[in-house]
Design goal:
Layout (H helix, E strand, L loop, with lengths): L17 H6 L3 H21 L2 H16 L4 E5 L2 H15 L4 E3 L2 H4 L12 E5 L6 H12 L3 E6 L5 H4 L3 E4 L15 H20 L4 H6 L5 H7 L2 H4 L8 E3 L8 H6 L4 E5 L5 E6 H11 L8 H4 L13 H9 L7 E5 L5 E6 H6 L3
Parallel strand pairs: 1-2, 1-3, 3-4, 4-5, 6-7
Antiparallel strand pairs: 7-8, 9-10
Helix pairs in contact: 3-8, 4-8
GO molecular function: carbohydrate derivative binding; isomerase activity
Keywords: CBS domain, Repeat
Organism: Eucalyptus grandis
Length: 349
Amino acid sequence: MGSLPPLPSVYPDQENSPAIAAAAVDEPTLLKLFQSQQSHLNFFFQHLDLPQTLRFTRTLLLKAGAGGTIFFTGVGKSGFVAHKISQTLVSLGIRSGFLPPVDALHGDIGILADRDALVLFSKSGNTEELLRLVPCARAKGAFLIAVTSTEENLLTRCCDMNVYLPLERELCPFDLAPVTSTAIQMVFGDTVAIALMGARNLSKEAYAANHPAGRIGKSLIFKVKDVMKKQNELPICREGDLIMDQLVELTSKGCGCLLVIDEEYHLIGTFTDGDLRRTLKASGEGIFKLTVGEMCNRKPRTIGPDAMAVEAMEKMESPPSPVQFLPVIDHQNVLIGIITLHGLVSAGL
């Protein structure tokens, strides 16, 4: 049997191989592209009509203040940007939504009301889907705002307000791929969103309330009582208990300590696994006769249940040396829980 012919190369034209293509991208090329994009963005900043932008911002503020919803729409890449800006406003506590133009023409336009504003993002201002949407949105009584990057276009002729976003050119060598135009749309929309945030005096706490799953939100929302261990999870003992009799309690609750209490649950002190090692080293076999009360720390750091969880973390890390837990007590020194560093980290703080 003769030998099989060699398999054809996946890249018969070696000039088109991935290795050759990768070598064609170098640091000077990338630097030149970033510098060009920076220049195009600077053109936008230098030529933006600020009074026009101010009227736009105030209009959105008035609509939001009057109980209206600020809707955004767009097609393609402009649609993605419009959706993102809408989400930014929602995260700032401003009623907003994205209205897909095609879906709007098939029933979703029913969400529009006469107190709402509809912001239409389009680079050219001649997007067919948006032009078809305009008369339908106008019939619902919504205030229409065109945001485009060409000064003369069909969309600006049929909207109540127009905003021009100056565009020098796209970074694309053919001036076609929408990369610079969408960048300035995003910068414009998100900057206006922050202006609205300031005008509405949104507090840090209110912002956090809209981001409960994020670290910022948790640090401003979660209290000690929300993340502490309590009741059967507490490693408790009495001061008269022998240390060696409490080893299971010390190790089984995952807190690294014992919480020493009296009959009325008042906190007397704490005994840690570190205290156990030091006691064993100092006392040797004598540890079998020692009680927890004899060796516990009677002045431990503590915290109240209504303190912020982030405050507990700061207290654990404060001088003279960090600790891994804080007993949680009420105003009468009654033990109600324990908060651990591991628990705080697990909660995302």
